[in-house]
Amino acid sequence: MSTAYGPGAPPTTPGAHADFTGIRYFAFPVSERQIAQSRECPRGCFDGSDSWDRWGPGDAPTLSLEKCYPELQQLLGGSDPRPALALVEGSVTHTPYGWRPYSKILDVAEARAIADDLDALLADPEHIPAIGCRFGDEEDCAPGNLIRARDFARQVSDAGFGIHYRIG
Description:
Helices cover 33% and strands 18% of the residues. It is α+β, with helices and mostly antiparallel strands.
């Protein structure tokens, strides 16, 4: 069961973001113990270093989509959202003083379902629509980001970890 917190709770409406300046996406593995902790302290009160115990200090897998997560929201969302949308849904909440980040925690089963869904999507690349890239440095950033997202979700779920991500 996922745990989402932050004022910009889903559902996300692709294209509903007013401004992406400085807003980035970053994900890292969390253990079952940390997932249970997050339900008690949803603002991210994690203790311990479970991923260090598994992968070693500084070697835990991470997923950084930088500022390209809205393209994946657009691709995975829509009228019939894919299960993998759970990996990128949500948005910051804009305030008169800036924005508040959005965070979400996905358990091991959800991480595995995301990896499986991205496997299915990537199995037929001809059916992945080109959605472009807002920054002009790449023609289409989605395929590479989908592969990295799938590999990350597969690696952490295979190790028995869930995912904690933050947009902001």
